[in-house]
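Quick one, T. Sequence first:
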Amino acid sequence: MKLESSATFSGILTAFASSLCCITPVLAFMAGTGGIASSFSWIEPARPYLLGATALLLGFAWYQKLKPVAADDCDCEIPQKRSFLQTKSFLLAVTIFAAVTSTFPLYAHVFYPKTQPAAIVEAQSNVQKVEFSIEGMTCTGCENHVKSEISKLPGIVEVTVSYSKNNAVVKFDKTKTTIEAIEKAINSTGYKAVKHTVLEG
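Structure tokens:
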């Protein structure tokens, strides 16, 4: 019974830890404290191992819960009432929690407002396209956080952010905002704009 409980609670911890790098940006965005968004980005390389550990631990807990009880193991003289933490209902709740947290990166975008930059450009010659290299992004939650902050600036025409490419490509009206202002917006999320490159078109 102790092994089953240990596996269950360890499964909760590994499931939560596996998505902490993606949950933190959403919490930071909702709390308005962008600076802590990248605090757990160092966990990202360990994510596959944490997910594997979660599956193994919960699988073991379910095996322990569902395996047939041998007659020798049955304490028929003193039937004991199990606490809720030892029931299948609790293990099912833990398994659902693990599934929800483990898949968090897939739906993190729903927590961010839809950002559609709609700057009116008076002259195409004023439009500048710049690629920013960004350190610290690990999932789509990070992308949406960065995109949301950039889109708040005046004069933003288009923003594309990619955590897999570690970049943001921004089209903006240079009479209304600057490269420095965009870098500042990126850095305010807790990620770091390390360099920028002016692109054609």
